[in-house]
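Case study 2.
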Amino acid sequence: MRATLAAGLLLAASASPALAQYADTISGTVEVASDERRRGLSWSDGEPVVRGSVALQATDELSFDAAATSLWSSDRHGGADAVVDFGASYARQLGGWRLSARGTYHLFPGASGQGYGQFGAGAAFLIGPANIDLNASYAPRQGSIGGDNLYLSAAASAGIPGTPLTVSAHVGRSSGSVRDEGNAARLRPGGTYWDHGISVDYLQRRWFAGVRYANSSIDDARHSGATLIGRAGITF
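Prediction:
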């Protein structure tokens, strides 16, 4: 099953060059990573993953995207074999600020009753060579996540002059209400917590690679402590 799923992910993502022959607004990526870590939590139980994504820039402001990531029967997400993320974003440039709004739905093939949706907003601006991003994402009360979930984050990134390297860092805080402790532990094991990380990424033409340090304030949960994550891929 793992081999079949990985082949399917690669096939779906590699279809994007063919689509790009007909629309310059379509792009895609294929990558491998040593872990699927989101908000300080491993979604793949610490296992390596394969990811494919496709994005469509419908207008200057509106875009749509989809991504599929292998999870290999993730315990965190009810034994799901993968997560498929469907998203839509709207962004406007207002002076030196770029304001955005986004909606996302997470689907978990191979598991029952695990899907959930969220929406959010962000503001980005430049300070010298650095790009600063402030974001808020909210998942309304849903049975699959045992309540609701609010994630606030701040991030900064900057290219290293004269090199193809970019350095970025972030800090985030997860909070929310709890109606079902078991399901709420998917996104907030132990309740409200902080996560942080720093990464260095290399981009040369269509190829990219990077290493990321990730950690969280969670004391008693699997696959949430300090780790280094490597990744490599190609864009189309």
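The first strand starts at residue 26 and ends at 33.
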